[in-house]
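Example 3.2
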Amino acid sequence: MFQKLIGFVLRRRHYWRSVSFDEIAELYTSRLITVFAINIINLFAAVYLYKLGYSLSFIALFYAIFYFLRVPFAFIMGKFVAYFGPKHGILLASLLRIPSLVAFALVPLLASGDALWAIAAFGLFQQLSSAAYDIAYTVNFSKVKHAEHAGKEIGNMQIIEKIARVASPLLGGVIATAWSPEATIILAGALFLVSAVPLFASVEPTATRTRMRLSGFPWRMAFPALVSQTVIGVDFVASGMVWTLFVTVVVFADFANNIYVTLGALASLGVMVSVVAAWLFGQMVDRHKGGALLALGVIGNTVTHLFRPFIATPVGVMGVSMANEIATSGYSLPFTRVLLDAADTSGFRTTYLMFAEMGLALGAGIACMLMWAGIELFGVVGGLSAVFVFTAVYELLLFVSRRAAN
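Structure, written as tokens:
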């Protein structure tokens, strides 16, 4: 149903395509379901652990360990994708999410020692799944996108993602509030089971039974984008987990279980305003305005991060969330095009995107370690605020990609 609807809406806007539109429609459909499933649970995971009584220092250290483990996991999953193909990589990622979610649902039912093992299993399988999915999805999209209209197609993919991100936090928050957080975990698991199905209507887009090559990799060309990927990882943690915990602890400290639906509603509103921006930004990238767009997005997000520590009201939370979504769309669209174009022209597509995933995971781990150290040194509010300030400064490294984005 979703694939037919996406085809009806977008096919006439992809008149330059012939057979391959079906392939990207399959990817759009799978991406819609996957992002929906991920965001049903990801927004609330850290808050869920906090509400179960785990300290923010523990949560930060837990995520740091498993993000750092994702670096070698990316190498393993890159080899899998190279050999079996990206669609099988996405299928594996979906299957790995199931034991992760089962373990997470068991945490409140177990004694403290066993619960720690369940949390560890949740983190292990989640990061294996994330590494497999990110590499497989970007390899697949890099292969099936149209080179001359990549900006428009990345914009369309962002719109698909944002539609899923508008609905999923709100639905997840309502379910968690009306029934229990565990109910959202069950729903996410069911969605992961079906998310890879649309992709297998066609064959793998890349050659299979190949081996990932490292010899001759163009490090000089790849280095700026790979460094920039660490910025994406830092920003992902700061705008996601750290901001959600800051809002929970500082702004909505007295909301009890209503925090889930409140966070979901605010997240949905923040994403909703950026849907039109994603479409407009996609047009700008194809008109060779990507460098200016990236610069504006970076500056906007830097200012947004600097404002975060001073937010104390729901209106402020909503305003910052909206500004962050628009600014992130502004830099991520041209940056994603740079990344995919470089992967296409490098002759090392899977290897390049594997290293990009390593950079993202490394950046995310650094942000979590900074959160842990900040909380230990300055307390909860001071530690979370330190992450925002660090992210605001570190994000300026994205300017190394500006020239390539034009």
